[in-house]
């Protein structure tokens, strides 16, 4: 079974070992120990990747933990429905942010064009 040291994961994901330990303290990662050395499994590596992706997408650590908790349980219909609600809410927020970004980008493009036209007069 493939295992990883904290320094290997930190280097691969370009984050600090302190960040990884923080995620462990928050209950998002659960490495085994060999003395004082943390031994991370493939599952921990995948979860770390999902944590970082979730953060980039605007998920809070609490939301990420909730999704992990829902995934780690027996996944009854109720739990899956809750996961769908969380996903739908986040998609709606991100879609609104994307719409807002597109509006601002269009406004900036128009302002740039006006500046260029004014310079050419």
Q: What is the N-to-C succession of helices and strands?
A: EHHEEHHH
Mean pLDDT: 90
Shape: flat
Estimate what percentage of residues fall within beta strands. Answer: 5-15%
Keywords: DNA-binding
Pfam families: MerR_1
Domain HTH merR-type: 3-70
GO molecular function: DNA binding; DNA-binding transcription factor activity
Descriptive key words:
single chain; 121 residues; mainly alpha; Multidrug-efflux Transporter Regulator, Chain: A, Domain 2; 2 domains; 5 helices; MerR family DNA-binding transcriptional regulator; DNA-bd_dom_put_sf; MerR_fam; DNA-binding
Question: How would you describe this structure to a colleague?
Answer:
It is a single chain. By secondary structure, the chain is mainly alpha-helical. The chain folds into two domains: 1-59, Multidrug-efflux Transporter Regulator, Chain: A, Domain 2; 73-121. The protein is built from five helices and three strands, in the order βααββααα. β2 (32-34) and β3 (37-41) form a beta hairpin. α1 packs across α2 and α4 runs antiparallel to α5. It starts with a strand and ends with a helix. The model has no long low-confidence stretch (mean pLDDT 90). Keywords: DNA-binding.
